[in-house]
TrEMBL record:
<feature type="active site" description="Proton acceptor">
    <location>
        <position position="327"/>
    </location>
</feature>
<dbReference type="GO" id="GO:0051287">
    <property type="term" value="F:NAD binding"/>
</dbReference>
<keyword id="KW-0368">Histidine biosynthesis</keyword>
<keyword id="KW-0028">Amino-acid biosynthesis</keyword>
<keyword id="KW-0560">Oxidoreductase</keyword>
<feature type="binding site">
    <location>
        <position position="262"/>
    </location>
    <ligand>
        <name>Zn(2+)</name>
    </ligand>
</feature>
<feature type="binding site">
    <location>
        <position position="420"/>
    </location>
    <ligand>
        <name>substrate</name>
    </ligand>
</feature>
<feature type="binding site">
    <location>
        <position position="420"/>
    </location>
    <ligand>
        <name>Zn(2+)</name>
    </ligand>
</feature>
<keyword id="KW-0520">NAD</keyword>
<feature type="binding site">
    <location>
        <position position="191"/>
    </location>
    <ligand>
        <name>NAD(+)</name>
    </ligand>
</feature>
<keyword id="KW-0862">Zinc</keyword>
<comment type="pathway">
    <text>Amino-acid biosynthesis; L-histidine biosynthesis; L-histidine from 5-phospho-alpha-D-ribose 1-diphosphate: step 9/9.</text>
</comment>
<dbReference type="InterPro" id="IPR016161">
    <property type="entry name" value="Ald_DH/histidinol_DH"/>
</dbReference>
<dbReference type="Pfam" id="PF00815">
    <property type="entry name" value="Histidinol_dh"/>
</dbReference>
<comment type="function">
    <text>Catalyzes the sequential NAD-dependent oxidations of L-histidinol to L-histidinaldehyde and then to L-histidine.</text>
</comment>
<comment type="similarity">
    <text>Belongs to the histidinol dehydrogenase family.</text>
</comment>
<dbReference type="GO" id="GO:0005829">
    <property type="term" value="C:cytosol"/>
</dbReference>
Amino acid sequence: MKTIQITEESRKNLQEQLLKRNPSSYGEFEEQVAQIIDEVKKKKDQALFSFTERFDHAVVTADTILVTKEEIEEAYTLVDPELVEIIRKAKANIVEYHEKQRQYSWFDSKPNGSMLGQKVTPLKRVGVYVPGGKAVYPSSVLMNVLPAKVAGVDEIIMTTPPMRDGKVYPVTLVAANEAGIDRIYRVGGAQAIAALAFGTESVPKVDKIVGPGNIYVALAKKAVYGHVSIDSIAGPSEILVLADETANPRFVAADLLSQAEHDEMASAILVTTSRELAEQVSKEVDRFVAELSRTEIMQKSLDQYGYILLAKDMEEAVETANEIASEHLEIITANPFEVMTKIRNAGAIFIGEYSSEPLGDYFAGPNHVLPTNGTAKFFSPLSVDDFIKKSSIIYYSREALEPVHEDIIKFAAAEQLTAHANSIKVRFEE
């Protein structure tokens, strides 16, 4: 891994390098994605089936696009029962955590005859996209579906690319069934996003699309935003470990590689005040890369976006972490809780040497759908809030409006909106 002393210039150069991974930087794919979306809008199912055969080499028809109950039952016979139990344990933790985020409608009545409030309503229909390419992610199924279930969404449908034989990964089906998915469609890529956004004869239009995917999926979500809501345009995975001389170098190296193995564009960064730890971590990383699978992916990730940053003190280390605003931030220091209070920007914060990043990915309960590419400065993890909408409630009686009606008329007049003013005025004509 590249070791760099932190300076203003090195920090700026690093951020510019990391931002190159943003899906919005890949304009050469946008035209192709736009063509796919336009084709699905015009030809609906016909385009959907054609693209599925072209990109996934699987034949899908109106009769077979929907996964059957029998296929889901068969999936349980193909998945290790022990894994099914682990999925159920993870589900319980995720539900318990997200239930604490639940919001309720509220109303505030006053003696003057007014009532103000907020009505919280779940979304009617949500589409969850589940990838089916380089790896299978049942954990993502749980993390995207369960907050929607807790929020009370009426209908949750899932799209996922089929394998060449037209089937869907069994573990994906099991996780979806355990999470409570209503319908599963075997279709993926930008064409699936278009189908969810605009609807076809087989796939209904949704109100919101969530879930990770490749560059085509990310750009398709960006393109349909406004026709439907989306969670975010997610970039490649990231981890930043903030550590001092007390950290175990073997733990740190292992945690860095837990993200580097996702794909060649993943980012793994150590920010430390200890040169000795930096050297030890670098050696441990090399050892692990030689031992573990996905060696080529990890090595490319480290070569392009793997860094060890040396800070003169913890204050500079924290400032750097806040500037990078990583998706995952681990704090492995002598006083991790004290350091945590100084962190302003991070998707998820893992405190102490036994709170490794995969704990959050799979099991602890907080959502693993997190802001990437520095967007943790203004975005939050996926939550129950993403699956509700709020309506303001306003009620005034004549008695409540009368004392303030002249104020409103003057306000409207100041903006030269005479019809606004008249709407109030007519209620108090002689």
